[in-house]
Amino acid sequence: MRRVRAEILNTRKLGAYHSLTLVAPEIAERARPGQFVSVAMPADRRFVLRRHFSIHQASRRGGWAGTLEFVFDPRGPGTDWLAESKAHQFLDVIGPLGKAFAYPRRLGNCLLVSEEHGSAPIYFLAQELRARGKRVDLIVGASSEDHVFNPIEAKRLSQQIAIVTADGSLGERGRVEDVLVGMLDATGAEVVYAAGSRRMLRAVAELCIERRLPAQVAVEEQMACGLGICQTCVIPVIRKDGSGYDNLRVCADGPVFNPARIFWDRWMGDEPRTLSTPPEGFPVVSAWPR
């Protein structure tokens, strides 16, 4: 983890989203898919806390070496302020933060599932998996066409892709869950990665438990410090022995988790049905390097 004064190299608009590329070699060299950066806001009473963003790209070589990119959807004073940023301005950035996705040692067919801005870290993961000789297939979901993040890039990264929008403006009409089973069958996926809404991630978790597929998900929760100190971003995660659950910090213990161990009923505010543990033989850790 490093704190740097990073120059903005480039800004661009991608549909409903904004992208900022920073010159930050100290962070880019260490960044992995699933991790995030913490960006300081102006010294103003309206902005008390930093804002936290998943890393979309981190270039370690070539003409863009030492740069990293993050993507956001302007929805409040902090992100609105960032959307007005210009090239050659500087930002106070801490990163990389959080636990990254793990790459499978032996499994080769990877299905990556994302919604809205959750596609940003998933595309980064897709590039890293392809570089390791893995097959990558994608499901990309959004509310509408302008919220489908960079569909051209998605098609370039995947061998087979399903794009789903709630209003049918691009791809199929519906939700990610509507095409999940079909894509698992069509691609022969051996491992699943996902980032998006809690609803979608829970559907991924339940299907992967049913099919005994290893999976990892990047979750989102309200963050304050982003460093694991304040305990505001905890989620309930079932212990490996099934004896109960612990409240783990998304910023430090995540944001990547095994979805089979998230206590979804409690996290989503449902009436707990059971404190379920993965079925016997479920490959919780065997597919992943320590």
Account of the 3D structure:
There is one protein chain. The radius of gyration is 19 Å and the shape is globular. Helix content is 21%, strand content 31%. 41% of the residues are buried. It has helices spanning 25-28, 77-83, 119-131, 151-157, 176-187, 198-211, 264-267, and strands at residues 2-14, 17-23, 36-39, 51-59, 67-72, 90-97, 109-115, 135-142, 161-165, 172-173, 191-195, 215-218, 234-238, 245-249, 256-257. The strands form three sheets. Strands 10-9-8-7-11-12-15 form a seven-stranded mixed beta sheet, with helices on both faces. The chain folds into three domains: 2-97, Elongation Factor Tu (Ef-tu), domain 3 (Beta Barrel); 101-218, 3-Layer(aba) Sandwich (Rossmann fold); 221-278, no CATH class. Helix 5 (176-187) runs parallel beside helix 6. The protein is α/β, with parallel strands linked by helices.
Total of domains = 3
- The residue ranges in which pLDDT falls below 50 over 5 or more consecutive positions are 271-290
CATH fold group of the largest domain: Rossmann fold
CATH superfamily of the largest domain: Nucleotide-binding domain of ferredoxin-NADP reductase (FNR) module
Q: Calculate the mean pLDDT score and round it.
A: 90
Question: N-to-C SSE series?
Answer: EEHEEEHEEHEHEEHEHEEEEH
From the 3D coordinates, which CATH architecture of the largest domain would you assign?
3-Layer(aba) Sandwich
Look at the helices and sheets and give the structural class: alpha/beta
Radius of gyration: 19 Å
Look at the structure and give the CATH class of the largest domain: Alpha Beta
| Global outline | globular
Strand tally = 15
Chain oligomer state: single chain
Count of alpha/pi helices:
7
> Fraction of residues in helices?
10-25%
Distance linking N and C termini: 20 Å
Question: In percent, how much strand structure appears in the residues?
Answer: 25-35%
